[in-house]
Structure formats: structure tokens, C-alpha cells
Amino acid sequence: MSGYLESEKRKIRHEFLALRNRMDADSAAVCSAGIFAGIKKLSAYEKAKTVMFYLSYDSEVVTDFMINSAFGSGKIVVIPLIKNFIDEEMYAVKISRLEDACLSVYGIRQPDINSVNINIVEKDNIDLVFVPGLAFDIKGHRTGYGKGCYDRWLKSVPFEKIVGLAYDFQVTKQLPIGEYDIPVSIIVTEKRVIQIKEN
Ligand SMILES: Nc1nc2c(c(=O)[nH]1)N(C=O)[C@@H](CNc1ccc(C(=O)N[C@@H](CCC(=O)O)C(=O)O)cc1)CN2
Ligand SMILES: Nc1ncnc2c1ncn2[C@@H]1O[C@H](COP(=O)(O)OP(=O)(O)OP(=O)(O)O)[C@@H](O)[C@H]1O
């Protein structure tokens, strides 16, 4: 990645993380409920048997109650797992309850790779993937924490299965894009559902 692109991305991360960190817990809960209301209206969600959520940390869109609701609807829930924080390769693993994913390194909740029976689910068997982000643009580009874990994992996932979850202020007109950035096909915020055309 060019130095210019890297510094532009760094600025975006800084700016949008500051915005997101300004949210208080009550507003985050209210907005996340609004986002889930939007998700439930998606026919792709209704039809999905297996959905990939992430377990929110920091000031990300809150997903715990969404995951519990998905269990209640009989869906299979998978979440990202980083087995090794050196190569940072991501896997999708099935959980049966939120408690399967205890607090892990760097504040990210994920299953304990030593104590839990790790059940890796193939990408082809996942119907819908919700991705977190620091910022999204109206063409579906996403800026994350800058590890590239999601971009690497999403490489072979069909565009229409990838859905970004964001507070409305995280959606901007245009983000700097790198060669590996994988766009989302839908962005769900508490105010709107943005459908993106594939380029
Ligand atoms: N909720 C949620 N879960 C997620 C992500 C996310 O953005 N949100 N990820 C999105 O990618 C992945 C987590 N990726 C991560 C990879 C590394 C570090 C991390 O803090 N690494 C250390 C460096 C390790 C070291 O010192 O060797 C660091 O930066 O300090 C954090 C998250 C998968 N799970
Ligand atoms: N498919 C890939 N193959 C090789 N390198 C990649 C791939 N995807 C991303 N990277 C590299 O990972 C680093 C971080 O990428 P980027 O800035 O796009 O992360 P991000 O989208 O902000 O974060 P994340 O995907 O973790 O949420 C960059 O150096 C990028 O070149």
C-alpha cells in the first residue's frame, strides 16, 4: 500500500474513531436497536440459515442482542476467530451461546481456542456476513482498524452476502480505497438501508 494511501487511511480511522467514541452507551443501544430493525426487514436476513456476526467491542454497533435474537429465530451464528495474533488469519466459527466467546486478548471476545470445541464453518455455508467498520462510503467501501483481517477473509465471499453495520454518522461520501478493499453490498444504519450496486 502506498505511503499516501496509508496516511489518508490513518486520518480517517482517527477521525471516525473519535466520532464513534463520543457516543454514550444509551445512544449506542438505541441506535443499535434501530439498526437491527433494519436488518430484520432484509429478505436476505429472513432467509439466512447461517449468519456471521461479530462480537462488538469498543464503540462498535452493539450485536449481543442481535445474536441472541438470531438464536431465538433458529439461525446458526458464526463469529470471527483469530487463532494467532501474529499472522492474524481470520476463521469463522460457530457459537451456540454468547458465553462460548469469552474475553480474549486485546479486548476482542472470541472462543478460547484451547478450551472450546472449535467448529470452523466454511464460507460457502454462510448465507450472510455482517461486518463492523470505522467508516463506510456510499459506494460500499469500508475502513476498519487497519489489520486487513476482514479484507483477507472476505476475498472469496460473494458481494451480495456482505453487509456493513454502522451508525449513520459513520457513512461518508468517499473513502480512500486500497487494492484489497472488499466492498459491502448493503449498509444498515439506524436511519437507512443503503443498497449498493456492484461495480
Ligand atoms: N468486534 C470485532 N471483532 C473482530 C474484528 C473487529 O474489527 N471487530 N476484527 C477485525 O479485523 C478481527 C480482530 N482482529 C484483530 C487483530 C489484531 C488486534 C490487535 O490488537 N493486535 C495487536 C498486535 C498484536 C501484537 O502485538 O503482536 C495490536 O495491534 O496491539 C486486534 C484485532 C476479528 N474480530
Ligand atoms: N487480500 C489481501 N492480501 C494481502 N494483503 C492484504 C489483503 N487485504 C488487506 N491486506 C493488507 O492489510 C493491511 C490493512 O488493510 P486495510 O487498511 O484495508 O485494513 P482495514 O480494512 O482498515 O481493516 P480490517 O479489514 O481489519 O477491518 C494493508 O497493508 C493491506 O494491504
UniProtKB/TrEMBL annotation:
**One GO molecular function term?**
5-formyltetrahydrofolate cyclo-ligase activity
Q: What NCBIfam families does the entry give?
A: MTHFS_bact
Known EC number: 6.3.3.2
Record InterPro entries = FTHF_cligase (IPR002698), FTHF_cligase-like_sf (IPR024185), NagB/RpiA_transferase-like (IPR037171)
Concerning Pfam families, the annotation shows:
5-FTHF_cyc-lig (PF01812)
Q: Which residues hold substrate?
A: 55, 60
Q: Which residues bind ATP?
A: 9-13, 142-150
Which co-factors does it depend on? Mg(2+)
What family does the entry list? Belongs to the 5-formyltetrahydrofolate cyclo-ligase family.
> Which keywords annotate this record?
ATP-binding, Magnesium, Metal-binding, Nucleotide-binding
Q: Could you tell me what this protein is called?
A: 5-formyltetrahydrofolate cyclo-ligase
Catalyzed reactions per annotation = (6S)-5-formyl-5,6,7,8-tetrahydrofolate + ATP = (6R)-5,10-methenyltetrahydrofolate + ADP + phosphate
Q: Which GO terms describe its biological process?
A: folic acid-containing compound biosynthetic process; tetrahydrofolate interconversion
